[in-house]
Amino acid sequence: ISDQKPLGCWSVKHGQILTCPVVCNFETHEFIAVHDDKVLRIWKNEDINLDKAFKATLSADVHRIHSLPNGGPVVLFRGGGVRTLDVLLEAPQQDIESVISDEAIRWSEAFMEDQQAVIIFVTEKDGDFFVYVQKPKLNNLHRYRLEPQELSQPLSFTAYIKNQTVTLLCLYSNDSVYQVLIPLQQDAEEEEQILPKSLLLNLSVSGNVLKGTSLVVLDKDHVAVLGSLAASGKEPKECLTIWNTKFQTLQTSKELPLGTSGQLWCYEEKFFLTHGKVLTVIMYKCETSSLAAAVGKLKTNQTPDVSSFVNWNTLEDEELVVSFQSQESVALKSESRMNLRSRRNSVAKVQPETLSVGQLLLNLKDAPTNVLEDELRQLMSKAQTPDLQATIGSVVTALTNRCKTNPKYYPQDFLVQIVQTRDLSYSLCPDLMAVALKKKDVHLLQICLERFPDIPEDITYACLKAFLSVSEAHLQNTDVNLESVICYIDVQLDNKEVKTEIVENGFNAELDQDMCDTKTPKQAQSKSAVESCPVGPYRAALLNAIIHSAYSETFLLPHLKNLPARQAILFLRYLYYLYVKCSEKVNTTLPGVRSPTINQIMDWMCLLLDAHFTVMVMLPEAKELLSNLHKFVRAQVRFYSELNKIEGSLRELQRLNHLRDSQTYSIEVLEII
């Protein structure tokens, strides 16, 4: 998630449907999926084709697979039967008992208690809700009836186990959270019990009611609720809220203007929720709850340093990091974070020198330009090591916000200095490259491409388009780093390239005469065109930064299809030039710093051809380029094919060289058969 790159992608055949969430087996590092209710698939990360993965057809429909870090996967069937994956794989067609009748499973979860897996699931039948607690290895099952609530139904469940007691939290439609306690030590023969519930929390904010849709537990004193806050006379607004259940207080909240799916997940101290079309990940940390922290949260306008709040900066582009607390946070990449902390000391008056970074940036929002930059430089110099990255990200965000509000303001030197000397990432300052693109600051874009590991593919494409469309006159007036091209493009004083003779490994145009048409004058000219770089050194250096950048083909290809045809041809000509240059060298490596590798060049050529092949076939100016590229690749294949034929002889020569005494002189004649 931090690098915004997919690590793997698998799909089922057309007509097949994944019927429960895919999980990871922590013990074997395998993925487990179920499609069409009964077909189990197991595969590893290096497997490519899902259809060739392990397959087992089960005898009953699967509801959910739960994977426990120390207990292995557990399979819950729709009939309420439970099996560990190991037992199930021993006999996939074994009969699965049905422990529920005409009931639908509404929620389930798995836990480890005393080194035993415990499965808890809630079912519904005709408006009544039942709770099942099962230990599959002990074949121990208990069924309870949930105490009904008049004129209200449960919407979401969450649970945790402590001291042999299950604490089940239920979010009801009457905007309240109830608590149910279930002891794990029960006699197996007891009759069905009715579980009483107690009111834990009323979801009311300043007289306005939160209509919750999803609930997760953070620890014994904190819960998170996702829902809509409806104010009188206003449209409901979706928000994520954190509540202190011990003191019945709202700890913090945040509006989600782009909307959510209504679902909230929590795993390893991270929230996962969809905000618009984006998956948002928010880290949190809960410490021991105290009355000072709970009451102090209600007085944040007067005492902003009572507790640490959520850094919601990734949710709204325009928002400053108003919740960043100095000396209390960890720099993160592409992740928000939240701290629910307690303060044992009494609330003190906030002094100017103890202002948080967020508060300081808010104070500087309308400051004069020279004051703003001076204060930001001082802020960076004073930042503590644990907070350094996040502080620098906040500084860049403040500068880019000023650039957007004041089009005439653009501190290029200051921004370049920050990016060159600090360890930043795209996610820490997501607006920086957008502002640089608007200002056509190709120098800053080049540095960002070289230093940021997590640039989204749409920004990479925007940079490529800008580099191909910017004029040569503009490029010659910029400070572009030429280290990646200076060793293989000879630059004259007029900034034009010197044509160099190309000696291509294994390529001889005469050998292709029998397979190609007789050369025309245009074809003769195309030969010389290959010998010189089709772009100037400045543009070549910028394109090298693009070629070096990390990307996912799946996400980049749709954007590349929008690249104008003539720009695509120009880029392909340059890639072809690099490909020929690499082939000159025995080790197929270009000289210079951060020069493109042969694999990167070939990958980009394939991407461009995939995105524009139909258009290039139709364009007359691309025909010669495609023909030359085809001939060169064919000659390379032929050359390496000939090398393979004498591979055995070359190995024998290498062996003889090791046996030969280096102190003596000899002449040997070897016959290659």
From TrEMBL:
Keywords: Activator, Nucleus, rRNA processing, Transcription, Transcription regulation. Residues 1-285 form the Nucleolar protein 11 N-terminal domain. Pfam families: Nol11_C, NOL11_N. One of its GO terms (cellular component) is nucleolus. InterPro entries: NOL11, Nol11_C, NOL11_N. Residues 360-671 form the Nucleolar protein 11 C-terminal domain. The keyword Phosphoprotein does not apply. GO terms for molecular function: RNA binding. The keyword Acetylation does not apply. One of its GO terms (biological process) is maturation of SSU-rRNA. Its main location: nucleus. It is found in: Nucleus, Nucleolus. This is NOL11 protein. It comes from Smithornis capensis. The gene is Nol11.
